[in-house]
């Protein structure tokens, strides 16, 4: 088991550079990565998928650059691509290729294989023999299943049903025909043409009328096919050699035939007389005139050589079956060898399949687990359990939609089901195939690096917790090592707590000087608890203000709430509130001894905010902690509002604003004559990046965590430049 996996990549699908070692040495703890949208998440998954597929990643925007990607264990050896399983956020077409390996009983399969092996061998011999007469080089069983309208796996059953006709030598005169020429895709398409069908129907009617007037043949009773079969059988059984003869009757007159050559000549003469009839020749010319392409002209030439075929084309499906039967007649030994073996084994196979139906398979366990854990409006079942257990065919998954009015669940096609499912429900169905793949890998003991790209996106909370529970099950498997990627901070936080991921295995994605880096997430599950012990740090103190402000609101202290609001929006007293004033507010709201003392700092809070922001900007690092991002957001808003208030220059209007102050100031500024475009663009960026995001009740600061540190620094510098312009 690898204890570490190192990924080293350059110019891969938008990632300029990234090198990181994922460490699974601590009890196989998963690696959890929080990556804000647009940073690296999908690019990493896509790069690893290329590695799995044996393809080289590329730079999307600069394809001329040489992409580099290596995935190695702690010894430096490359990880086997088959050992990496990349799971997209959703892929509705994905289906595990290993599902059929989840068999309940190897003993049953071995018994079945032993019995069916001889059948399969004889079936292969027959199919091989049928290649020459049909002209088909492959997919003989598929062509037979299409002709007899059965599933490919049911070809053997279809062949067994033809035993009587083959024994009787039915349709033997068709055995010289080439299936490949008569029933090519182009020919079949041509025969579906309405005008062609009409012409063939007319030809067939005339042909049947002429047959009725024949000396020897009679429609539906005795045709030239029957006559040729009799001639062939008489010769094969030495009828004429034994001194016997045959009498042919016509209008009460008898013609005695004493040799097989005389009989064949009589049949051929009567057949030639029918096929050269002027009316039939005229109709044939009309059909011939519609055969224009090279492939159709080959078909035309074939009809000229075998004109009796035209009358058969009026029922193309029946004709296909007759042709296959004629081939079986010609290869009757191989056919009867197969049918004999099949008949003698049917009872044994039936008993084994009956036993298989009673087996509890691993994929049934998967389905039961899925039906129990995931909340979806349908139930999953396996329909062909016996065949699937014996690996005769892949398991057929069926879906039964639950009746909300209490009726029986209704079997529904997958295509119909998809139209009625939400994105989250379709994603749950996708998870079913993921579980199949995981279980198959468990069974095969394939050591697997699983990379999951936002696997729970669009899930409701019940299904989100269901997938987290399943991931927790997988992490206990020694052979599975999980790397979880997400842009959803709420999911990140939930997984971190429920699966127990801590230390350097909880990572944040950060961009530094064009390259990506995965840095340990030092934010505790409760950052406020941590901050209360570090209020002597100016940045932490400023970042804690929105939290304490929310607490004043929750306890109903409106005066203190208003005072702290003046530190988040520019009010009359904003620049007069001192750090000592802030200390007294904290003393009134927080329990004594629950936080560090910061009252000795002196000065105003506004000045502290501005100096803290400047210090953050001067550090020149995009990797900003949560408290640094919140401090910058507060500073940005205060400077922006100061610029707007000075520019608007309307004290009465500003005093009248009771809520949503930043947005209202921007709208007022936008309507002013001579509104400065650059300033307007800057303050609109402020509106986009800072409202609500600095408050406690915003998914634990998720929006501001998603923001790039670089963008916040840049925005602070831009609003400061606007302020200097106003001064």
Describe this structure as you would to a colleague.
Keywords: Coiled coil. Residues 339-373 form a coiled coil. By secondary structure, this protein is of the alpha/beta class. It has a six-stranded mixed β-sheet, sandwiched between helices. A three-stranded antiparallel β-sheet has the order 2-1-4, covered by helices on one side. Strands 8-9-10 form a three-stranded antiparallel β-sheet. The relative contact order is 0.09.
Q: What count of structural domains? A: 4
What is the number of beta strands?
14
* Uncertain stretches: none
Radius of gyration: 41 Å
Coiled coil: 339-373
Keywords: Coiled coil
InterPro entries: P-loop_NTPase
How is the secondary structure organized here?
Elements: E1 4-12, E2 15-23, E3 31-34, H1 41-52, E4 68-73, E5 84-87, H2 106-134, H3 140-147, H4 155-160, H5 163-167, H6 179-182, H7 185-191, H8 194-212, H9 224-236, E6 246-250, E7 253-257, H10 260-275, H11 278-288, H12 294-305, H13 316-330, H14 332-358, H15 362-373, E8 378-382, H16 385-389, E9 397-401, E10 410-412, H17 414-420, H18 423-444, E11 448-453, H19 461-475, E12 480-486, H20 489-500, E13 506-512, E14 515-520, H21 527-531, H22 538-555, H23 558-565, H24 579-589, H25 605-619, H26 626-648, H27 651-656, H28 661-670, H29 677-689, H30 702-706, H31 709-726
Parallel strand pairs: 3-12, 3-13, 5-11, 11-12
Antiparallel strand pairs: 1-2, 1-4, 6-7, 8-9, 9-10, 13-14
């Amino acid at each position: 088991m690898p204890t570490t996996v190192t990924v080293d990549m350059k110019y891969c699908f938008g990632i300029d550079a990234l090198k990181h070692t994922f460490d699974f040495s601590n009890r196989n703890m998963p690696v959890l990565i929080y990556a804000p949208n647009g940073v690296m998440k999908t690019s990493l998954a896509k790069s690893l998928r290329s590695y799995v597929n044996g393809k080289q990643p590329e730079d999307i925007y600069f394809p001329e650059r040489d992409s580099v990607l290596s995935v190695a264990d702690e010894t430096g050896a490359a990880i086997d691509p088959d050992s990496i399983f990349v799971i997209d956020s959703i892929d509705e077409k994905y289906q595990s290729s290993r599902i059929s390996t989840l068999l309940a009983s190897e003993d049953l399969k071995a018994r079945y294989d032993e019995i069916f092996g001889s059948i399969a061998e004889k079936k292969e011999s027959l199919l091989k023999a049928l290649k020459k007469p049909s002209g088909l080089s492959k997919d003989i069983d598929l062509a037979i299943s299409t002709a007899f309208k059965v599933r490919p796996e049911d070809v053997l059953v279809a062949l067994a049903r033809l035993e009587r006709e083959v024994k009787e030598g039915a349709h033997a005169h068709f055995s010289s025909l080439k299936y490949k020429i008569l029933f090519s895709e182009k020919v079949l398409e041509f025969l579906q043409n309405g005008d062609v069908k009409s012409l063939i129907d007319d030809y067939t009617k005339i042909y049947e009328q002429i047959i009725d007037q024949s000396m020897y043949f009679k429609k539906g009773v005795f045709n030239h096919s029957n006559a040729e079969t009799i001639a062939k059988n008489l010769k094969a059984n030495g009828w004429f050699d034994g001194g016997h003869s045959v009498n042919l009757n016509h209008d009460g007159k008898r013609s005695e035939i004493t040799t097989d050559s005389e009989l064949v000549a009589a049949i051929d003469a009567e057949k030639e007389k029918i096929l050269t009839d002027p009316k039939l020749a005229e109709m044939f010319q009309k059909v011939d005139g519609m055969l224009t392409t090279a492939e159709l002209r080959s078909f035309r030439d074939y009809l000229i050589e075998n004109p009796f075929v035209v009358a058969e084309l009026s029922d193309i499906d029946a004709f296909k079956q007759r042709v296959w039967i004629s081939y079986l007649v010609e290869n009757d030994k191989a056919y009867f060898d197969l049918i004999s073996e099949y008949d003698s084994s049917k009872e044994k196979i039936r008993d084994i399949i009956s036993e298989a139906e009673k087996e509890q398979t691993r994929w049934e366990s998967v389905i039961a687990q899925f039906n129990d854990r995931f909340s979806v409006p349908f139930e999953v079942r396996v329909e062909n359990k016996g065949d699937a257990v014996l690996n005769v065919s892949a398991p057929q998954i069926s879906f039964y939609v639950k009746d909300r009015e209490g009726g029986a669940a209704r079997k529904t096609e997958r295509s119909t089901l998809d139209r009625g499912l939400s994105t989250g429900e379709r994603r749950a169905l996708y998870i079913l195939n993921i579980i199949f793949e995981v279980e198959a890998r468990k069974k095969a003991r394939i050591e697997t690096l699983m990379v999951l790209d936002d696997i729970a996106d669009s899930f409701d909370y019940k299904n989100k917790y269901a997938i987290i529970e399943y991931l927790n099950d997988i992490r206990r498997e020694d052979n599975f090592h999980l790397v979880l990627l997400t842009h959803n901070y709420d999911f990140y936080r939930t997984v971190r707590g429920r699966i127990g991921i801590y230390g350097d295995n909880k990572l944040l994605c950060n961009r530094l000087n064009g390259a990506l880096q995965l840095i340990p997430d030092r934010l505790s599950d409760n950052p406020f608890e941590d901050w209360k012990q570090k209020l002597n740090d100016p940045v932490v103190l400023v970042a804690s203000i929105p939290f304490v402000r929310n607490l004043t609101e929750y306890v109903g202290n409106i005066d203190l709430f208003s005072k702290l609001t003046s530190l988040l929006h520019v009010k009359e007293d904003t620049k007069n509130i001192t750090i000592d004033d802030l200390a007294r507010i904290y003393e009134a709201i927080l329990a004594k001894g629950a936080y560090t003392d910061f009252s000795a700092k002196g000065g105003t809070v506004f000045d502290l905010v501005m100096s803290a922001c400047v210090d953050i900007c001067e550090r020149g690092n995009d990797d900003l902690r949560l408290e640094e991002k919140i401090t910058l957001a507060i500073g940005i808003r205060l400077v922006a509002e100061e610029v707007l208030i000075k520019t608007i220059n309307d004290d009465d209007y500003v005093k009248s604003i009771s809520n949503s102050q930043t947005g209202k100031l921007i709208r007022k500024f936008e309507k002013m004559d001579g509104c400065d475009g650059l300033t307007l663009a800057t303050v609109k960026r402020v509106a986009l990046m800072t409202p609500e995001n600095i408050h406690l009740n915003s998914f634990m600061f998720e929006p501001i965590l998603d923001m790039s540190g670089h963008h916040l620094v840049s925005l602070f510098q831009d609003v400061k430049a606007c302020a200097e312009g106003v001064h």
